[in-house]
Amino acid sequence: MEWTKVTVTTTSEAVAAVSNILIEAGANGVEITDAADFKAQALGPYGEIYDPAKQPCIKKGAQVAAYYPETIFLPEILPQIKQRVAQLTDFGLAIGENKVATTAVDSHNWATAWKKYYHPVRVTRFLTVVPKWETYQPKQPEEKLIILDPGMSFGTGTHPTTRLAMQALETVIRGGETLLDVGTGSGVLSITAKQLGADQVYAYDLDKVAVRAATNNLALNPIAAQVPVTVNNLLAGVTQSADVIVANILAEIILPMIPQAKPLLKPKGHLIVSGVIATKLKQVEQGLQQAGLSVIQVLREGDWCALIAQQQED
């Protein structure tokens, strides 16, 4: 999977707000380079002075950088990032240049560098996502852990679209269901489904890297170790009927998937779709309704939405 580094040039005072904007847009963490951090200061036991003139650094302002996988449609979110940063002036923050630049990233370097940004996350009342390199003990008896080594795949539980999908699964799963996970990414939703009591889970992804990552993550969670992960283009050719189908993907990909999902849903079955930016919500709602599915709940976090739709009885 390819990654892109998105760098926003701004001011020192806007660093925290810009960081939040980038994370809400799908980043798992940020890198901050602030000119204010490069002022000369005493270093070492002998009072050696750090000379910023001899070190590579920016001379003024700040840069906030974030990393996005190819599963995130950058042409859509880059204008939104720039607009949201511009709106910070409404809150009295100076934003400086507000330049947004992109750079391709060496995937091998990113695979290890980003681990410092990833820590246990309590996503819902019952679900906590834990990186495999962290030691974590449940805080409550009912808390269930999802162990992940996300590597190069998207879906760690930190992004709003993943959290919303997990919350939706927690809403509809009662135990014993058959579930299809479309665009499984890291496998986090398949593991979630098994932890919540789903019986049979089948995971699909078009990206072979994601399929390998999901398989490895499922193996880290004994309850989900036997979930099959298959390379597949959405639900094309799938004949397995299901009580629940979940897809955390872009709205542009959700729309052609809906007609594929409709005939696979059992009566009263649920289709959960996440990854829907607020401006595309009506379009996805219409797509679901046109397919004969009833939208029973819309979950929101920031500018992101997830929808729970239900198949009608025959």
Word description of this protein:
The protein is of the alpha/beta class and 314 residues long. The protein folds into two domains: 3-115, Alpha-Beta Plaits; 151-310, Vaccinia Virus protein VP39 (Rossmann fold), CATH 3.40.50. Helices cover 27% and strands 30% of the residues. Strands 12-11-10-13-14-16-15 form a seven-stranded mixed β-sheet, with helices on both faces. A four-stranded antiparallel β-sheet has the order 2-5-1-6. β15 (294-301) and β16 (304-310) form a beta hairpin. The longest helix is centred in the N-terminal third of the chain and has 13 residues, at 74-86. It starts with a strand and ends with a strand. 40% of the residues are buried. Mean pLDDT is 84; it is low at 38-56.
Q: What is the compact description of this entry?
A:
By secondary structure, the chain is of the alpha/beta class.
Sequence stretches where pLDDT stays below 50 over 5 or more residues: 38-56
- What portion of the residues fall into strands of 2 or more residues? 25-35%
Main sheet: which strands, in order across? 12-11-10-13-14-16-15
The helix/strand order is EHEEEEHEHEEEHEHEHEEHEHEE
Q: Which CATH C-level class of the largest domain is it?
A: Alpha Beta
The average pLDDT is: 84
CATH architecture of the largest domain: 3-Layer(aba) Sandwich
Structural class estimated from helices and strands: alpha/beta
Which fold name fills CATH's third level, the topology of the largest domain? Rossmann fold
Number of strands: 16
Radius of gyration: 21 Å
CATH superfamily of the largest domain: Vaccinia Virus protein VP39
Q: Please tell me what the overall shape is.
A: globular
Helix content: 25-40%
Keywords: Cytoplasm, Methyltransferase, Ribonucleoprotein, Ribosomal protein, S-adenosyl-L-methionine, Transferase
Function: Methylates ribosomal protein L11.
Catalytic activity: L-lysyl-[protein] + 3 S-adenosyl-L-methionine = N(6),N(6),N(6)-trimethyl-L-lysyl-[protein] + 3 S-adenosyl-L-homocysteine + 3 H(+)
EC number: 2.1.1.-
